[in-house]
Amino acid sequence: MSDPVLHVKNLSGGYDPVQIFQEIDLILHQGESAGIFGPNGHGKTTFLKTLSGLIDPWSGTIRFHGDLMNREGERGSRKWRNFNYDAVTRRRMDPKKVAWAGLIHVQQGNLMFPELTVDETLSISSEAARGRDGWTPEQVRDLFPRVAERRGHKIRFLSGGERQMVSVAAGLLSAPRLLILDEPTLGLSPKIRQELCDAILKVRKTGMPIILIDQDVGFLEQIIDTLYLFDHGRISGRMTREEMPDHDGLMALLFGEHH
Ligand SMILES: Nc1ncnc2c1ncn2[C@@H]1O[C@H](COP(=O)(O)OP(=O)(O)OP(=O)(O)O)[C@@H](O)[C@H]1O
Ligand SMILES: [Mg+2]
Description:
It is a single chain. It is built from eleven helices and ten strands. By secondary structure, it is of the alpha/beta class. The protein is globular. The structure holds adenosine-5'-triphosphate and magnesium ion. The site of adenosine-5'-triphosphate (ATP) has 10 residues, from α1.
């Protein structure tokens, strides 16, 4: 059998010196998608930022298509407290290497450059794509007609929903072999939310492996094969789509019957 798309073993991390998540195991096979569901502030975003190398893992391993993405071993102690920490610490993981391998992370809160236009923003993605085959600009414009209409506008003049669409479009243009989406529909009005959900479902139907964090159980059900429950920085449950209860059922699993 071929290597899994993603194989995370015993991963721990956080914002030094505060540990945020611990001992996470996650495996994603070719063609599969996984969801992560859990309360606010419990470390879901921090875990994803670690997967893509934005922050360093403390221990454990991240393998992408069989290749080790991080330096192995425990994080070293901080010896040089009087020095600039960033200057003396060797990174344990290189986010460029991760993106160039095709592990593409669309971050929570559509972080983008407000003064760039939509087209300028999307053009950056070719740097991450590095010549790998992926979505073409035409395909992305068909998927997000609203983004196509705003091509010449600066990001700061777009609505929240439009920005979120640009973020996902940029992700697709980066030629993902795995697309990580962190709460892409957070805070959107129902109409634009539906447009974005439909677009993500179309992407999923091409067979793209996706890791999706979302609070909407109905949406998760459409996209994922496996759901991970995330609680206090740990995976507290794992279930297939068929085993997934409704929203109240999930809340009961996380918080007990009387939440
Ligand atoms: N840059 C940072 N430096 C220090 N602590 C941080 C940083 N970002 C987040 N935290 C803390 O890490 C913890 C986990 O936050 P994180 O954003 O990973 O949670 P989350 O599960 O994604 O929450 P949400 O559902 O609200 O997005 C929180 O206590 C948060 O305050
Ligand atoms: Mg988050």
